[in-house]
Amino acid sequence: MKNLIIKSIYCCLCAVLLLGASACSDKFDTREGQLSSSAIDYTDPSQMIGALIGAYNVVGTRGWEEPLLLSVRGDDVNAGGLGDQQPFADTDQYVYNKDYWMYNSLWNGHYSDIIDLNTAILQIENFMEFMEGEDLERAQQYIAEIKVLRGWLHLNITRTYEDVYIYRTNEPATEIEENGISSKEEVLQFISDEMDEAIPNLPDQRPNERTDLPGGVTMYTAYALKAIANLELENYQAVADATGEIISSGKFSLYPDYYQLFKKPGELSDESLFEIQYSDFGNSTGDSFYHLYAPFGPQGWEPVRENASGGWGFFEPSMKFIKFMIERDDETRLVTSVNFTNRGIQALEDDGVDVPSYVSNTTPSGDVLNDYARAFFSSGKQYLPSVQLTEGRNNYSAGKNYIVMRYAEVLLMYAEAVVRGANGTGMTADQAVNTVRNRAGLGNLSGVTIDDVMDEKFAELAMEWGIRYYDMIRLDNYDELSYDGRSFSAADEYLPYPQAQVDALPLGD
Amino acid sequence: MNVKLFLASVFFLVFSGLTYAQQTKTISGTVTDGNQVPLPGAEVKVIDKSIFSVTDFDGNFTLEGVESGDVFRVTFLGFSPQEMEVGSSNEYSVVLQEDAGQLDEVVVVGYGTQKKRDLTGSIVSVDAEEIEKTPTSNAMQSLQGKVPGVQIVSAGSPGNSPTVRIRGLGTYNTDSGDSNVLYVVDGAFYDNIDFLNTKDIKSINVLKDASSSAIYGVRAANGVVIIETKSGKINQKPQFEYDGYTGVQVANNVVKMANAEQFVTMVQESGSEAEQQYILNAMQRYGRSRVNPNVPDVNTDWYNEIMRPGIIQSHSIGVSGGGEQVAYSMGVNYFDQEGILDMKNEYERFNIRSKMDVDISDRFRGGVNAVFSNATKYNPENAAWFKAYFAVPIMPVIDSLNTNATPVRYSNAQNLGYRGIQNPFTDLNYNNDREKIRKLLTNVYFEGDLIEDKLTFKTSYSHNYSAFENRYVNLPFTLGNNFERISSIERQQNNFSNQYWDNTLTYNDEFGDHDLTVLAGHSYRDEAANRFRATGENIRGIRFDSSWYLDFADPLSFSDNVREEFDRIYGLSFFGRIAYDFKDKYLAYGTVRYERSSKFTKDPWGLFPSVGLGWVVSEESFMENVDFLSFWKLRASYGQLGNDNVVASSGTNTIDNVFADFGDQALNGFTSTSVFTDNTWERVVEYNFGTDINMFDDRLNVTADYYIRDTEDAIMPITIPVINVVLQQNAGTIRNQGLELGINWQDNVSEDFSYRIGANLTTINNEVTEINNEEGFINAGSAEFRQITRIGDPIQAFFGYEVEGVYQNQAEVDADPFAANQPEANLMPGDLIYKDQNGDGFINADDRVILGSFLPDFTFGGNIGLNYKAFDFSMSFYGQVGNKILNRKRGEIIFTQDTNMDADLAINRWHGEGTSNTYPSSAGLRKLWNQQLSEFWVEDGDFFRIQNIQVGYTIKSDDLPQTRVYFTAERPFTFFDYNGFDPEVNDGVDRQTYPVPSIYTVGINVKI
Predict the structure, then answer these.
(1) Domains in chain A, start-ordered, CATH in brackets?
(2) Which residues pair with B225 in a beta bridge?
(3) What is the ipTM of this complex?
(4) What is the pTM of this model?
(5) Whole-angstrom Cα distance, residue B761 to residue B385?
(6) Under an 8 A CB cutoff, do B6 and A312 touch?
(7) Of chain B residues 682-741, which have a CB less than 8 A from chain A?
(8) Which of A184, A253, A250, A195 has the alpha carbon at shortest distance from A222?
(9) A-chain residues within 8 Å CB-CB of B503?
(10) Is it the case that residue B6 has pLDDT exceeding 70?
């Protein structure tokens, strides 16, 4: 009897054990709480845009140091922030340190984004296998858009480090093995060729005319990027042709208020060819997609809107630029580009500058800058007046868009190319320069020289993505860069490869 | 495989018919110890028959159905077993002698027990008495300095668990829980035992070598600690015990900061105009000191301001006992500890425990065990430790002029011109971080003898359920200078549900000189975790804690602030163990575990074998005449372990949901990864050689072990170039090797006086022997404070310049070739002189060397115990040598150079020829040259500490229950050179380490 009970107990146990072992075997192969990329339904055309939006997100998440490092070596801007981020200040003085984190971070940030964009292209290609007709065209447009975004990232990289890698796939190791490193000329030519390839697939619209993705890349963004790449290549005819396409489309015009162009009212204007869009969507809490503008801001200020935060004082318009602007009496663009402190105004006066009365430590929007130890001046184009902040949002310049390419730059590139001998289509160089000047409240010039054009670029595009610096090194104009105690030589044009990359990649030394 | 075994056993059962005896009688007797004290609960068993009894309260037993010539055996824990033959008498009196040595002591091993003398591996047991001496919420703390090979790094904040490292560091990721030891509490797996009351623990067994722990397979790579909780005994009178202590904790060795005058001197010498301006600002705002008119009239000692003494108390009540069939043990405990940081920082825990074991019949036993722990922890704002270091002393805590600060007018350093707020009081008083921790351990088992005394089947199911409820409240405040923080509440609910089902079959037999134990088992585990997190902002009624719920938050603020993650892993394993000895002289031991974990996408099945051999030399005939040597064993073992306590590999590209802005509309999209992990086990391979020696009638005991422990396929963070993604991949080998030595002497001089002395030493040599990536090294830390893992060096070693001194005068600078070769360094007297390692005349990245590791070279510990009549005294000490600490608090000057510093640096700075050859000048501290990581920032962490002193007095009287009163001083004195609070820094980077306080308590223990 006892035996029988025991026997049945064990039979049951054995059965349970067998059941348990078989029931769990398939659990081992699933990974709970993980969304695999194979879970996307590639046959559903409505999901395809998700990959493109992801690509814009990738380009929008720029590190705070990137615009600073791309620009700081120009004679329009200084490091400011003395006493902090010393190697950043050294970079401003053309003393380079290949171990400095910013160099590595700029490299990493750009290349990892390029790979992410290439992965997004692969995702769209997965959809393409199942698409036809309009959907297929849309897929081709999306890929072309991503190629423009990826071209801009390649441009920044080659401008900074000269000879770099080009990545068209998301398998960089293979590409390095097959193609090795590309010269700056090759990279720029690659960008230009990619734009030629992309243009037919892109919408013939201004970015702000797009209804699916307002502000997204269009045909004209690609033309603008092509022009910039060819300007770097000193291929002026191609510059004139590409900019000519934009001008003759008749779609673009300068935003009338230069000051507000860089504020909320100027977002996605008819002047914009490409801007990275940031927003808190008008809500005081919840989602926000921001760039960290604090490094550009003044350290101490009295904002009109209570509790609006100041910044770190890391980006200081140069005395040279300010003197240049005062000499030209270029009021609108000076007060837009520079926010002054009393200490800075004093320093100008001490330097014998006759400071005009429109220069004050109160911005045109009423925010008052206090003196702070780090810097004399703060940059205006990255400044959003505190009254334009969304209620409850206190971050410096919270939600402000970052303009990357605009029509004024296109006009001036066109003018430069024509003055340098290229054939223009339609407009004259004088007309192009004067269009820009008139918007800034300046009178017409006639028979513009190359110096006039370069001065106009300096005045119009200062503190924007290092345009000034890259112009100067393109023209080997080292005298301009040897200012305020600096001395610039050909060896200083490019940053050294970051040590971390030298360790990991076949970059030579 | 084990299914077959079951079938075999069932089969066996069917044919093992019972035979019935013929001529029988009933005998009775009593069991006492040498002092005629009856021993209740002793087991009495007739050899080779199923006749069995247990003594009652008075030590009496009866055996029915015995025959003349039968032999019965009496066993009782802690006493030598005794056998008697049944003769003509029906009455027997058995006197048991106490065990002479600890060699017959039974040690808990994986899924069973083993006699200590038969061990071939390295296992250390610590019994309750030692554990209870330390006033702590986590029993592992009490092991500090007691067990060779085990490094315990204390945690300062109440309720936090110490870092436990067994035999060095075998896994790369030190902070993510990957390096956690496996705790096996009554059979269930844990990675933390903070839910156990110290008083409820019967023993802690540390399984150090791979051979001992291999049976735990994939979770055992960082060492295994087996914990048994207390249980009752059959036929034991109920014993009631109260134990309580209360005391105070105070910070020790508080870092002395530069006072206002020293700070101002440093600033004046720095040459920084901006900083000098801030001093003027402070004098303008707060006035000038009357003592020294060049100093502001404020002198705040921030550490003094943010600290307080803390209370600690613990009260435990327990009852244990047993009847004829049921043994029980139950208890409650209340533990309460305040932190020494002056904010809502405390830990309170209430525990309930019950355990019941039932003899269902002669052959079947079962039991249930439950521990419920309900704790509330208010976490400290550790940033305060950091801020109090660098906050300038020329600023008061409260600044009545700061009228824009609400609700309290706390000072804001920005008002003086500084970049940051600095004041730590906003962290202390405007943040509230509550964590409710509820843990439930449940276990039920059933055990049956399939063949009596020989074959036993056991099945055991455990479920441990933990719920962590976090609420992090940010109160709103303003602080002037446009600083405003809006209110927010972050809620987290993290639940973990882990289930284990173990089945084992144990066969035990003695034949002739052979003694054999064979175990086969099967285990299934299911570990699920659910993590929920939501943050709400702009809380209505935030000033009242009755509204500290998300319900009162602005609903818009939830978008993108709500997260839920889920993961669940499964493990399936089969395991076995064989232990064999011949004539108690030659020992052999082997285990194997075959296991699958769903965490791995590559080769998910792992096979982990181990073997051990032992030779008891003292049993050999040629040792018979060596009288002073009572026991001598040599042993060697080899084993392999897996570690799946790592990040699960994904095995495929994954998707992230993201959004972007288009014309102030958020549109949703996705990004996809382009690389992923595909990992297999980290595998530990270990060799252990050891010896145990007992001498002079077991009074002297020496245990020594040498081990070499390699972690192969160690998971390391490999940065994929270009893609710039860090993947946790199988990428290297880490070797730990070392010597462990323990020596103990104990002697009972007379009935009134006994004493013991012990000492132990552990050496640790940690080294990475293989890294598979392009660079050949892995960077850790930040660029400014570089730590590096290279082949041939320890994990995450500090990496920088060797300092040869300080330039004393301009002539020294001029004579140095670097000054000419590197004019941009702008060398001056007062700057550090670095060693040009490669002699190329330049000081650059190539001259950096390993400056040391946060792992010590060796640790040592010791203890002394005295018993004299009713008094007892014990003291233990602990020390470590060779570990380095990065003084990251000092290092903050790299980022913000206008902050305060410790008095040692302020006083001993270079300020003229001959003033210092180790510290740079004040101006030098602000220069990039001196800010590079060098020996200046990396300090020795050596320390020696009186760990614990306890004095007790036991009242033994017929009128009173047995009562012991005791006084404990925990960590009363620590000696070290490091310029910080505390040389115990878990990862060697002292930025905001919570200092470990000294604790003084009085306690009382009553047993009825």
Answers:
(1) 46-76+98-188 (1.25.40.390), 203-277+401-484 (1.25.40.390), 294-400 (no CATH)
(2) B183, B206
(3) 0.90
(4) 0.81
(5) 33
(6) no
(7) 719, 721-725
(8) A195
(9) 13, 17
(10) no
